[in-house]
Design brief:
This protein has 207 residues and is mainly alpha-helical. It contains nine helices and no strands.
């Protein structure tokens, strides 16, 4: 028996709720938006939100997964546009930080996952990103084989690089009185971060 296609109205309502949650929760001024506020922004009732999502955490989990799906093509495009090896490694770092700036809630879920196991409803977002980490490892292998980077263990190098990029991204998305503001300041931080990564990866010259 063929499965019935979802009701277009249901699909539109769910999408509107997710769009409203994404806009509000990624906004520094409304990151703790209530279900009522999300419903109002989506133009639906609070009851309608709960018809689609059992609770706020379930809504946030779906929002994060959707963010990873949305970013998948951006990661892939950045990698494809770069030359194999070191350029692809650097392109990943640029794309990762751009992802954090565009999707701070989803980015923070990665940072939390690195420290402690996520609850079951938030685990579904990780496979999409993990695939890009596997590609990054392959790019590090290629860069090492071509002599573009030092002969370091790839797995350890990957962990350190992601740690550096995460640290930079965390500074760029912070929302306290030390927040970095303004395009020139952000550009300077990105350039400094790239220089640090390059300095650490490049082979040490021998006399």
């Amino acid at each position: 028996m063929a499965r019935r296609a979802p009701d277009p109205r249901t699909v539109r309502t769910r999408a509107a709720i997710l769009d409203a949650a994404t806009t509000l929760l990624n906004d520094a001024s409304s990151e703790h938006a209530s279900i009522a506020r999300i419903a109002d922004a989506a133009g639906v009732s609070v009851g309608s939100v709960y018809l689609h999502f059992d609770h706020r955490d379930a809504l946030i989990a779906q929002m994060i997964e959707t963010a990873f799906v949305r970013q998948h093509d951006r990661f892939a495009s950045a990698r494809e546009a770069a030359r194999p090896g070191l350029d692809r490694v650097l392109a990943f770092g640029d794309a990762f930080i751009a992802f954090a700036l565009a999707e701070p809630v989803a980015f923070r879920s990665l940072a939390v996952r690195a420290l402690e196991p996520p609850p079951p409803e938030r685990r579904s977002a990780s496979p999409a990103f993990d695939e890009h980490l596997r590609l990054l490892a392959a790019d590090l292998h290629e860069a090492r084989g071509a002599g573009e980077i030092a002969d370091l263990p790839v797995d350890a190098t990957l962990i350190v690089l992601v740690g550096i990029w995460t640290g930079i991204a965390e500074q760029l998305v912070r929302r306290d009185d030390r927040a970095i503001e303004g395009a020139p300041a952000v550009a300077a931080i990105l350039q400094l971060g790239r220089s640090v990564v390059l300095a650490g990866l490049r082979p040490v010259a021998t006399a």
